[in-house]
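USER: I would love a firmer grasp of how sequence relates to backbone shape in proteins. This is the protein in question:
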Amino acid sequence: MGIISIAAVAGLSLRSLIQNIIPPQEVTSSTFPTLTLVNSKTGQPIKTSDLTVNSPEIVVFNYPLQNEPNFLLRLGNSSGQDIAIKSVTVKIPATGQTYTSPGGVGPYKSVVASSAICQHLGCVPPEIHYYPPGTSIPNTGISGSSNHGLIHCNCHGSTYDPINGFSVVTGPTTHPLPSVVLSYDSSSDTYKAVSMVGPTIYGHSSDLSGGSAISGTSTEVVNEGTPST
């Protein structure tokens, strides 16, 4: 199974680690760090082959501050084939404002990332997690046939659509999940987090305040375990 993915199937107990390596730099109120995603099992930067399409295992990485979990997903259809994620206009229901999502990266344009903190009241994995295409989401009325791959929070029922910029599908949330902007180097098949777009991360006045900056040469990121249902 891929090192970086998120869970939708109960009973999984694998615990993996990712390391995020950044060049020494100070995170300021106007500067996002550049974070290279590294497979901790190999000690090497994440490759596309490390990411399984729609994989049912929760792993998150911290960005842009410490203790700021994010999802990394390689999205696909119900047949497990990569789908290219387009940049779209995303609406913030609370304000009516819109912004443009970054779209997918990687050789198939299928890899995306977002904050893993629910925008309603701040729940984190495993309470909020990804349901792959074809799986029913409990207590929502969303059946397998109507689910093309959604993120759902079991705390209070908020649902988000990663295919469409992590936009709001169902409340009570009134804000989409902030997207992490990823860069992809095709020559080395590696991924970096470089900034964020969308509403402010839940619980902060800005994405670069209200927490501890990522510093030093590396940071561990821990698999958050089996989702609650």
About this structure: The mean pLDDT is 80.
